[in-house]
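Kindly review this protein for my students:
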Amino acid sequence: MKIFLLIILLSISTFAQAFDAVVVKITDADTIDFKHSDGNRDRARLIGIDSPEVARSQKEIPQPYANVCRELLETLLKGKIVKIETTKRDGYGRNLARVILNDVDINLFILNQGCAHLYYPNGIDANLRASYENAFLAAKNARIGLFSRTRYVTPTVWRRKRHLKRIKTK
């Protein structure tokens, strides 16, 4: 009996909150702004993925495929009601979330389209992690999206280089 209960508890989603919201802005392919049913705005960082970096100012150059991937997510989500499943917030105050549209895991969809790299700084459910890794490897092996480039730099490395450039110019 104890083993049965343990299996049931482990199979329950690790997301603490789930709620519907309207997507109002796409920052990049892994960050969205949304409006709660009470009208309050908030931000979500799509858990498990790291998309190419968009330009943050006129002086910056976006990472290859950043705008294409952001526009893909914008076409899918802007103005739509989605389910946000979240456990906690990151250091920037964003909800770490899985976003669902019409029963489709958008985080997984972005990986399938070759628009993101895997990213697990805050942990992730083992089952979700396995499906995300499979989607990532499939896109990478098929050379889809950002993986179609001969030389690919992860968003983490891109951010580090951008940060170093800022320090040198000060």
